[in-house]
Amino acid sequence: MFRASHTPPLSILLDDLLISDPAAIAAHLGVTTQTLKHWKATDKAPRAALLALFYETRWGYSLIETTAHNGHIRELQHRQCLERENAMLRARIARLERLGGFGAANAPVLAVR
To answer: Where are the domains of the chain?
Structure first.
């Protein structure tokens, strides 16, 4: 989940949008243009509206891209760690197989004559 703990004021978010048409912005937020005008006049909007606008600005895009990149790096490192562990276990198994001379504790019971 993406987190935006602090959003810029409404006026800054609106200035950073690629679209400046109030009707399109109001439609995106699911409010009337009058409500959007009121929010602009007071420079305040509900948190849900601020977050919806935040993710349409460069800050939102940056947060999403950074989160995706960090997730990719974390998964890559996890995969590399598992590959190293797998190689170590394979080497250990190969060494034990070379030692030979021992079997499973229940091998005589399972032996077919």
So the answer is: 7-56, 62-101
